[in-house]
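Side project, low priority. Logging it here so it doesn't get lost.
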Amino acid sequence: MFRNIPPILAAKQLLDRSIRRTKKIQIHDRDKRYEIKKIIIARTETFITDLTSQLESYVKNFPSIDKLPLFYQEIIDIKIDTDKLKKSLGAIDWARKTTLMVYSTQNSSLIKSGNVEFLKQKQKEIYGRVSSIVKQVDKNLVFLSNAQKILRTFPDIEDIPTVVIAGYPNVGKSSLIRQLSAAKPEIAQYPFTTKQIYVGHMEKTVRYEKKQYQIIDTPGLLDRPLSERNNIEKQAIAALRNLADLIVFIFDPSGTSGYQMSEQTLMLEDIKKLFCDVPFIIVENKVDVQNTGSANRKISCTTGNGIEELRQEILSVLDHI
């Protein structure tokens, strides 16, 4: 969805690129005066066409934000800022339209005149006015360039049954998605390793037909009001709100994550209130380190203990939704 957005050039790069392309144009005519005139007209037209085509491609290849699934709308607002993105796209389109208007009002002068010095001066004038227009939106081009790089990192979310893994930082969410799917998120022993959403898949064969299920690893959550959450945490909330058919909440009773069970329990209660219509599976990880003897499902992402049983429960719940 976001892979088609081309790299965005800054104003100077964009102008230099278009000017370089004009210099390749050569036209031969017996009459030297007409040859120069034809070259000036052709180069000016190419300069405008190349420039406006690039600006148009920037705007057209960005998806219409309002038509995107709600999950993407939320993530864009969190990581980029929807209002700034829309304003920058509008500014680029303004530059394209204004460039075309300048050229349309000046082009007839090029066609009618046979004075070489006048033609050169008029070409210089058009280049100058257009360059000024493009430079006015340079900050918007830079903003879009950064937005394009961020958008290309977004996961491809499919409209299939989806389980979202949630819990405090460093409780084993990334380790679990590696056990359950082919996705390979970064694993490290420090909070907020997962700064983005990771997507994996599970498969199940039903009567010779393969069914796919989506499993999403979210950034770690902390037990505090939504208004106080950072942008990393807000991505997890967006995934829970818009994607989850099932939430697997992971506890770490061992204390190695740095969070007490009482803190983790408060967060689970908070999330259950927010997503009261979504089924939950409660899991305690690191059973090889600490086994509480509670009724919660026990797993160890280190030894693989309980992983297959959890997989089967997840598939069973998703099949009945």
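Brief comment: The domain at 162-319 is CATH 3.40.50.300 (Rossmann fold).
Revisit when time allows.
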